[in-house]
Amino acid sequence: MIRHHPSQELLLEYAAGTLSSGMALCVNMHLKYCPHCAEIVDRMTHVGGMLMEELEPVEVAPDSFDALMQRIDEEDMLAAEVKNTKGLDRARELLSNWIPGGWNVVSWKPQWFKIYEFLLATSEDGRERLSLQRINAGGVAPVHSHYGREVTVVLEGGFSDEQGVYQAGDFIIKDQQHKHRPRAHENEDCICLALLEAPVRLTGPVGQWIERLRNFFSPQMYNQTSRDSA
Amino acid sequence: MTARANVVPLRSRAHMETPQPPVNGASDNEMTPAQYLGGLVKRIAETRDRNAFRELYTSHAPKIKAYAIKQGMIEFADELVQEVMINIWRRAGQFDPSKANASTWIFAIARNARIDFLRKRGRMSAEVQVETDYLWDLPGGDEPVEEHNRNKAADAVRDSLSILPTEQRDVIAKVYLEDKSHQRVADELDLPLGTVKSRVRLALQKLNAVLQEDLI
């Protein structure tokens, strides 16, 4: 059962269409697992529809409809296909844009003991990363917190940390205040979609030394200014 | 604490009830504006009916243009209108009145066209290389809901929006229609950021009762 959902504000911004693409992907992935939030987003989208209906109309050029039809005829626009995929298949379909064969066949890059990453996209400045993360059964990540927000959507399996237990479909946001140590369940691998708005900050005793070296070599990448993403 | 003077009954606003159905009012046997609009989309889908499309264009192109202008896309407003209308023409077959309300569907197409436009011009951060329609689904992709229940939910959302105090409603409208961060809304209304945040929160709490009602 899904216990961790995006906030109402985030769902609202999703429905209004003001989130970044990466954040929208994370929210949408959650919606594939969570009919409850999907229904809320439907209703919030409905609010958008009503607000648009109420707008004071702005005149369009009188011949604009004919121009449109001419373009439609010339470009011979076909009707779009009707898609029939449902539920979780749509979650896989969404990811298949990057990984056509699904997450079982990607070449995972080792990060730590029993921890792997597969990078899907980064922003131009390299501060924001969208990736799949895998913690093998029983694996434990190093203690860390974040410079910005880290969004995690559990796709398969589950993990736990100091703040809770997370299952497939759960949507989790951590920020600077959260120091945590994710641990995969003992009996199955955990696969997550993760969006990192700024690099991870290691906070354990060894991690702090690594952190100092990082700061020494590239201070600009790891400064603490967080960005307002919305 | 809620001053009744602030309450704007939405239903009394004649201009939101568009397009006008042949019969006014909405008892059980008569068409609501949404059903009428849905009928137009259905005709476009089934017979590529150009008259239906022209009618939809006449009623909604000016609203989509208003939306584009509110979003600050003044010089591209006509272009956006054309994109939205082409999408309506192409995707009419995907619209299913048992799953979504037609004006909600049109709003979602306009929203996605706007996002697509901004993404192609690189104005959104952290570009994810995937079609906008995959990131923002159009309503109605899920299991069909009985039309009666869908209408009930739609009415409930409308009613709850109509009893929001104006100040909260304005803030919500800015989030939906003007692509504004909380900070920009605060600057424009000359209010402290905290006030804007609390108005959004209050509005959401009120809408929430309805947004969460009868959920699966």
Q: If you had to describe this structure to a student in words, what would you say it looks like?
A:
The complex is a heterodimer of chains A (230) and B (216). Chain A has 230 residues and is of the alpha+beta class. Chain A contains 6 helices and 11 strands. Chain A has a 6-stranded antiparallel beta sheet, with helices on one face. In chain A, a hairpin with a 2-residue loop joins β6 (158-161) and β7 (164-167). The radius of gyration of chain A is 21 Å and the shape is elongated. The relative contact order of chain A is 0.15. Mean pLDDT of chain A is 81; it is low at 219-230. Chain B is an all-alpha fold and 216 residues long. Chain B contains 9 helices and no strands. In chain B, α7 packs across α9 (193-211) and α8 crosses α9 (193-211). Classes of the chains: A alpha+beta (230), B mainly alpha (216). At the A-B interface, α1, α2, α3, α4 and β2 of A face α2, α3, α4, α6 and α7 of B.
Largest sheet of chain B: none
CATH topology of the largest domain in chain B: Rna Polymerase Sigma Factor, Chain: A
- Average residue-wise pLDDT of chain A: 81
Helices and strands of chain A, in order, run as HHHHHEEEEEEEEEEEH
Question: Can you tell me the CATH superfamily of the domain at 109-222 in chain A?
Answer: Jelly Rolls
CATH architectural designation of the domain at 109-222 in chain A: Sandwich
Helix content of chain A: 25-40%
> For the record, what CATH class of the largest domain in chain B applies?
Mainly Alpha
Strand content of chain B: under 5%
> How does the overall form of chain A come out from the CA principal axes?
elongated
What is the secondary structure topology, with strand pairs?
The complex is a heterodimer of chains A (230) and B (216).
Chain A: H1 8-16, H2 21-33, H3 35-54, H4 64-74, H5 87-95, E1 109-112, E2 115-122, E3 129-135, E4 144-146, E5 150-156, E6 158-161, E7 164-167, E8 171-174, E9 183-184, E10 190-196, E11 200-202, H6 205-217
Antiparallel strand pairs in A: 1-2, 2-3, 3-10, 4-11, 5-8, 5-10, 6-7, 6-9
Helix pairs in contact in A: 1-3, 2-3
Chain B: H1 33-47, H2 50-70, H3 77-91, H4 102-120, H5 132-135, H6 147-162, H7 166-177, H8 182-189, H9 193-211
Helix pairs in contact in B: 1-2, 2-3, 3-4, 6-9, 7-9, 8-9
